[in-house]
Amino acid sequence: MPEDIYTFEDSDEAIDVLSVFRRKYWQMNCLYRGSVMTSDTSFLRLKAAETQYRGMFENAIEGIYQSTPDGRYLVVNAALARMYGYEHPNELLNEVSDIQDQIYVDPSFRDKFKEQIEQTGFVQGLESSAQA
Fold first, then answer.
1. Is residue 74 within 8 Å of 94, Cβ to Cβ?
2. What is the DSSP letter of 10?
3. Which residues contact 66 (CB under 8 A, 6 or more apart)?
4. What is the mean pLDDT of the chain?
5. Cβ proximity of 58 and 75 under 8 Å
6. What 3-state class would DSSP assign to 130?
7. Can you spell out the DSSP letters for 56-106?
8. Which tens digits make up the pLDDT trace of 46-70?
9. What confidence score (pLDDT) does residue 8 get?
10. Among candidates 128, 84, 81, which has minimal Cα distance to 106?
């Protein structure tokens, strides 16, 4: 008889071992389902937060954007697009490839902007004039 096969002395012993395996399987199954539910709940919370912040971004009355260090817009909100005379954010994204030369009246402003980001990690209270 192979060494990895266990033989039971009687049926009661076999039933006891089976009960332990069933209980362990049930516990592991519950843990797995709990982690899936936690994962699902986390996903739903994340999705709700994303929806909330997207709404704030899209409906803000101030212009908000994200750009690359070399001056290309990555994302702009509708308010910024309207400020620059575009009907939709995608129009601005497609037509402006160089913020420094195409947007700012004073192209050196972009350097001030980048300097403030490098020093503090954000820009606050910095205003510029844009080309019409």
1. no
2. S
3. 73, 74, 75
4. 81
5. no
6. strand
7. HHHH-SS--EEE-TTS-EEEE-HHHHHHTT-SSHHHHHHH-S-HHHHTBSS
8. 888 888 888 998 999 989 999 998 9
9. 47
10. 128
CA dist 54 and 16 (Å) reads: 56
At residue 38, the pLDDT reads: 62
Which residues are CB-contacts of 104 (< 8 A; sequence separation ≥ 6)?
110, 128, 129, 130, 131
Closest CA relative to residue 127, chosen from 108, 107, 109, 102: 109
Q: Give CA–CA dist 91/87, Å, rounded.
A: 7
Residue 19 to residues 11, 23, 36, 104, Cα–Cα distance (Å): 12, 6, 26, 75
R_g of the chain computed on alpha carbons: 30
- 45 near 28, Cβ under 8 Å? no
- What one-letter code names the amino acid at 5? I
